[in-house]
Amino acid sequence: MPTQPHKNLTEEIEDILTREIMHGVYPPGGMFPSEFDSVKRFGISRVTVRRVYANLEKKGILLRKIRCNTTVNDRMTAATDPIRMVGVLLPLSHEFSRTFLNSMNQEAARENALLVLAPPFNNGREQSRVAIDMVCGGVRNLVVWGYDHDLDLEVFRRLRLLGINLVFFDHVAPGNIADYVALDNEHAISALLDKAVQDGCHRFVFVNTAGLEVETNMERERLFRKFCQAENLPCEVTALPWYEMLKNGAAEHCRKFFDDLPEPEKTAVFCANAFQADCIYKAVGARGRYYSISTSETGYAPTIFNIIQPISAMAKRCFELLRSQQSEGKHWKAKDSRLKGVPDWK
After folding, report:
1. What percent of the chain stands above pLDDT 70?
2. For 299, which DSSP code?
3. Of 193, 195, 202, 262, which residue is the least packed, with the fewest Cβ within 10 Å?
4. CA distance linking residue 216 with residue 235, whole number of Å
């Protein structure tokens, strides 16, 4: 986060009230304290309070009418200033995030914009609080790679109502509060299944990420089941501990999973992502065939067949959607952008 200069009294009071709105103390459409109430609460002059309220109204946070009560904005708005700073909220615990961050940085350079990386967080709730800190620090455009389903989407709904441009990427789908960029999972799973059938596999297992229940992985599992049932392919679903994989590769869990497979040489093991497939391969070797989704064409064993996510194109699409929100303003409607991956059968 950029270093903030010392705030004057007006800025301090504005920051307090803005944070309270973002945390839901004063909900969208709800009544806001009168100027007199704030004069009494903070022990400051009415001139200062009027300046604070005028600033909040100018930003679209408050709605004020002559001789009427002040309310918190409840209509979708947008930051219309040129995009000069983009906040990126993503977990950096594995290579997928770092690859995406690198692509975002390249896009920011093309846009002549500054990329602001969020401070570390360990779960979705912390990620939601970090988003508020970034906005209060002056960031008006956010790209969010949701950590998990503990992410508080209500916080982001309030940010959107307060004029913050939002694009979600990959893990957590935001519904109608933000644009969403993700892989075309239907195309990816279909292509991987076709490849496995061509390879002579007659049994199919999907390995999900235990402890990391996110939209992307659930969608891939759902599509795997759907396509297998449509083609009358014998299939099953299991899960391996995701955070243990990140920590130490979860070799014991991977070996037990593989040893329990009947005819592993004829079984297609579908993994939620290529890191997971790589962990299994390192634990048991080339005894099986693995099918997964990756962000890179390099570094994986020859028996791991990947659909490569178009990360650079995804980063570019995030910027395009931020500009779209900026130009559409109150007429904006959420967009779901799915980009097709590229098969890598090397």
Report:
1. 94
2. S
3. 262
4. 20
